[in-house]
Amino acid sequence: MTEDRPAEYGSYPSLRGRVVVVTGGASGIGEKIVEQFAHQGARVAFLDIQHDAGMQLAKQVGAAGGVEPYFLQCDLHDIDALLA
Fold first, then answer.
1. Can you name the CATH fold of 18-83?
2. Interatomic CA distance for residues 3 and 26, integer angstroms
């Protein structure tokens, strides 16, 4: 747990180093899921159609002391692009 996180958040050592994939992770509930897993030390990859928000979130999480997540801009409705 980093110094800037409030003490009321639990620490889950079993998540450290685990791989987590989040769809729709650049904003809203998905954003919070990305942040929390990263702050637990999980290796997070997240997909979203929102390029700027995704890039900003990845950098923000890394700067706040979490493991910087990997962001991939992706539209899950475009199956051909997703497969490529």
1. Rossmann fold (3.40.50)
2. 24
The two structure tokens encoding residue 75: 């539209």
Phi, psi of 4 (to 5 degrees): -85, 0
pLDDT tens string 36-52: 999 999 999 999 999 99
Helices (H), the chain: 28-39, 51-63, 79-83
Residue pair 65/3 in contact (Cβ under 8 Å)? The answer is yes
Label residue 1 by pLDDT band (50, 70, 90).
very low
Cα–Cα distance for residue pair 79/36, rounded to 1 Å: 29
